[in-house]
Amino acid sequence: MRLTILGSGTIVPDGARNSSGYFVDLPDARIMLDCGAGTLHALARYHLPWEQMTHLFVSHFHADHIGELASLLFAFSYGTKTARSEPFTIVGPEGLQAVLDALQIAFGGKLLNAKFPINVLMLMPGEKMRLGESSMISVFKTPHTAESLAVRIESGKHSLCYTGDTAYSDAMADFFAGADVLVSECSFRDPREDVRHLSVSEAGRLAARANVATLILTHFYFDVDEESLEAEVQKEYSGEVVVGRDGLQFDLA
User: Fold this and answer.
1) pLDDT, tens digit (0-9, with 9 covering 90-100), for 51-91
2) How many domains does the chain have?
3) Which of 59, 133, 179, 223 would staple 159 via disulfide (CB 3.0–4.6 Å)?
């Protein structure tokens, strides 16, 4: 299992950080997690096999997480260089089909006209689905938007979790329990009651309760100093801390 960060930023324009997006290469599947601004071209920049992508997981419908959904689908229709017959599956929360229907109208009705089947699957919190023979995802409701989901990917002996956007939740930490890697949003330096996002200390507390082996921090609304950020998180969490940045690759082996 290999993770590549396509976008470690937010909706705020940043020359070094795209909006949210991640690519996970599995033995039997290739899945993209969210597709915010800048992530489509990042697939090519980091030499990832995007034409053979099998799944896209959408955590929720904010622009910094689905801003390039239409562009990705157009790329499959008009930008591929190799023939393909295998289906591509878009997985997300309830309301995903309505989002795609609206995008179809906005972009002229040809959004899903790829030369191979495109399937849409909406999952309810607690549901699981198989990606391939040995890989599976499960989803959990996060306290962020009405539809927002976190995801857990399991393949063989390894597991990778992604918070999407979320406030702190003990129940969500239990969903992540024992994962090899937790990719966690880390929006603000200090806790805030006016938004449903994680602060530095809350991301550390989430990883500590979940007892994950490695915590990868992303989705920053603040300027990041890696050394000081790691030190701050380690006040709450004693495992490995990785400060995410665009292009970072992490192998689970």
Assistant:
1) 999 999 999 999 999 999 999 999 999 999 999 999 999 99
2) 1
3) 179
One-letter-per-residue 3-state SS of 43-93:
HHHCCCCHHHCCEEECCCCCHHHHCCHHHHHHHHHHCCCCCCCCCEEEEEC
> Across-strand partners of 181?
160, 214
**DSSP-derived pairing of the beta strands 2-7 and 21-25:** antiparallel
Helices (H), the chain: 39-45, 63-66, 69-78, 96-106, 170-175, 200-210, 226-233
What confidence tens digit (pLDDT) does each residue in 187-202 have? Answer: 999 999 999 999 999 9
Tell me if 190 sits within 8 A of 155, measured CB to CB.
no
This prediction has a pTM of 0.97
Catalytic residues, by residue number, are 64
CB atoms within 10 A of CB 181: 24
How big is the chain, counted in residues? 253
Contacts of 142 (CB under 8 A, 6+ apart): 59, 148, 149, 150, 163, 164, 165, 166, 167, 169, 172
Q: Which residue shows structure tokens 């009705």? A: 109
Report CA-CA distances (Å) from 76 to 34, 36, 59, 141, 160: 16, 17, 21, 30, 26
For strand 128-130 and strand 214-218, is the pairing parallel, antiparallel, or unpaired? unpaired
What CATH number is associated with residue 149? 3.60.15.10
User: What are 151's two structure tokens?
Assistant: 């995801």
Q: Three-class SS of residue 190?
A: coil
* CA gap 171, 99 in Å, rounded: 28
Q: What phi and psi values does residue 214 have, to the nearest 5 degrees?
A: -135, 135
**Measured distance CA(103)–CA(90) in Å, rounded:** 14
Distance CA 7, CA 161 (A): 16
